[in-house]
Design brief:
The chain has four helices and five strands. By secondary structure, the protein is α+β, with helices and mostly antiparallel strands. It has a five-stranded mixed β-sheet with strand order 4-1-3-2-5, with helices on both faces. A hairpin with a 2-residue loop joins strand 2 and strand 3. It is globular and about 35 Å long.
């Protein structure tokens, strides 16, 4: 797979509850397995932060579907990078409830969210990937 990319985007949840989140995860896992996409979704009531990785065309198509999904508001693309290896190769979509995410809700206002540093976002997912290696 020479056309492997990672994207990281954020959005604000619309209608966030357990049923909505379960539906997003089920749909993502099914579509990602079909399309050869892996990744992780970090979520809490005020933010979805997601890394998707896989062949460029299918990752971009998945991101376009997310942008049109009415369960996501104010979708913002933060990182698009070619990569040589996946961070979440064993996960069609790892779910992390963001218990350790360091940002406060005040930090994540719409204006501040557009300025999230790409290196900080990459570090969050690198750390999550390392922690996932120890999950059953």
């Amino acid at each position: 797979m020479s056309d492997l990319i990672q994207i990281i985007y954020s959005s604000r949840p619309f209608g966030y509850d357990e049923a909505t989140l379960s539906g997003i995860l089920l749909q993502a896992r099914q579509g990602n397995q079909r399309d050869g996409i892996t990744g992780a979704l970090i979520c809490r009531r005020d933010i979805y932060l997601q890394l998707l990785e896989g062949p460029g065309p299918v990752v971009r198509a998945a991101y376009d579907r997310i942008r049109r999904d009415d369960r996501h508001l104010d979708v913002r693309l933060h990182v698009t990078d070619p990569v040589s290896a996946r961070l979440f190769a064993d996960w069609a979509m790892l779910h992390d409830p963001a218990q350790s995410l360091i940002w406060s809700p005040d930090h994540l206002t719409d204006d501040r969210r557009k300025d999230l540093p790409p290196d900080e976002l990459r570090r969050i997912f690198t750390d999550l990937s390392a922690a996932a290696q120890h999950r059953p």
